[in-house]
Design a protein that fits this description.
The chain is mainly α. The chain contains eight helices and no strands. It has one domain.
């Protein structure tokens, strides 16, 4: 999964420029540490679910599937994952993030929150 972390690092500067990262600067380093452990497991769960739905890339090459997910979503993936982290850590509510337009909508972070609950 080291290659996934390298892929994430490419988008880290763009993530830091997001309104959400700027608004919660004090949580960014905690999120970075969390991402290396819990975040990677969440990406793996997402790949496993895609494989179960019949995605051949997710089934045969889960690491490549995850890297593709990060590439397609770019910094937006990190923003949504950070939002889910903030909700899980009880720093802020999902409603607050949506209402104040930190994230596009509930759907964008709902998947990550669902996976967090499943991961436990």
């Amino acid at each position: 999964m080291e290659s996934v972390l390298k892929e994430i690092e490419k988008y880290w500067p763009h993530f830091l420029e997001s309104d959400l990262a700027k608004g919660y600067r004090s949580e960014v380093e905690k999120f970075r540490a969390w991402l290396k452990t819990v975040g990677i497991r969440l990406f793996s769960l997402r790949a496993r679910e895609a494989a179960e739905r019949g995605n051949p890339v997710a089934r045969d090459y889960p690491e490549e599937y995850i890297k593709g997910l990060v590439r397609r979503g770019g910094a937006r993936v990190l923003v949504n994952l950070f939002a889910a982290y903030l909700v899980q850590a009880k720093v802020v509510s999902q409603y607050y993030l949506i209402k104040n337009k930190y994230v596009a909508g509930g759907e964008s972070i709902a998947t990550w929150i669902r996976l967090l609950k499943k991961e436990k």
